[in-house]
Amino acid sequence: MGMFSHTPKSNKFEYTPRYYDERKERLEAMKKKYADPKRAEIEARIRGQFKRYEKKNRIFIKTGTRFMLILAVLLIITYAVLKYFGWW
User: Which helix (H) or strand (E) holds 64?
Assistant: First the structure.
């Protein structure tokens, strides 16, 4: 019964950074401290507008292609019917 309930031990992960730049850390902290809090909100809103535009554009291309295909098929069928009955 013991062989069915065996659980393996977890592996431990140890990470030691090889290089630490104190100046870079201070600079990032200052940027974060003095950053405009509304900037992230504005960037997210602009990004969202671009995504909506891309999605709208993709949908338009898909529907336009589908429309052209349906139109071509209908024209071919119309031509065949007119040719068959001798009206053309």
Answer: helix 37-85
User: What is the identity of the amino acid at 47?
Assistant: R
Identify the pLDDT of residue 21: 85
**pLDDT for position 88:** 66
Which residues neighbour 88 within 8 Å (Cβ) at sequence distance 6 or greater? 79, 82
For residue 39, which amino acid is it? R
23 part of a folded domain:
no
**Which residues form the domain of 39?**
32-85
Counting the structural domains of the chain, the total is 1
Q: What is the pLDDT of residue 35?
A: 75
How far apart CA 57 and CA 47 sit, in angstroms, is 15
